[in-house]
Amino acid sequence: MSSTYLMRLSGLASIVSGALLIIAAIAAQFPESGGVAYYIFFRLTFFAAHVFIFFALMGIYLRQHEQAGWLGLTGFVLAIIANALFTTTLGLRAFLNLTNAFVVIGPRLLPLSLLLLAIATTRTRILPAWAAWLIFLGPLLNLVVAVFGQNRQAFDAIVNIIGAGIAPALLAAGLIWMGIELRSKPRLNIVADRRKE
Predict the structure, then answer these.
(1) pLDDT tens for each residue of 156-170
(2) CA distances from 187 to 6, 7, 92, 175, 177 (A)
(3) Which of 14, 18, 50, 110 could form a disulfide with 172 if both were Cys (CB 3.0 to 4.6 A apart)?
(4) How far apart, in whole angstroms, are the C-alpha atoms of residue 25 and residue 7?
């Protein structure tokens, strides 16, 4: 499999994950509308989006791996681990009673790992830095809402709009932007990318 084909597939996965996150964010704004069918649809859509994020992260890292250095590698590895924990939590939470330690690690590690990846992406100047920062801001905003919005019934509507609407929309925008970039420029042409600044 050529690197160009792999980049295009990764770009497509990034776009699909962004689109699924937008669908999940819209569905999250109407929780009372469907009962069990709604819950299953919402969970499966969110789960599928995070499965596609695995492939998006691989393309984002592979496109800039030579210039990203240890910071990019660390961010990538931590992002894969955090997304695996988060995706496993999404998939199993509906069926199993998971311990709190398992549930909280993924969502707390994801913003840190994406911060490292965003810094590496900004430094390499190969992929759009703003797209990387949007990918970081979505999970960060979700973490802030989860930490500070707990047990505050007065803010339930705001927490739902930000945590289940705005945060996934930011992540989705960054993923779609990054996916378009990976599909339109799949070759590892470093010199041309650096001159583009």
Answers:
(1) 677 777 777 888 889
(2) 10, 8, 38, 19, 17
(3) 18
(4) 27
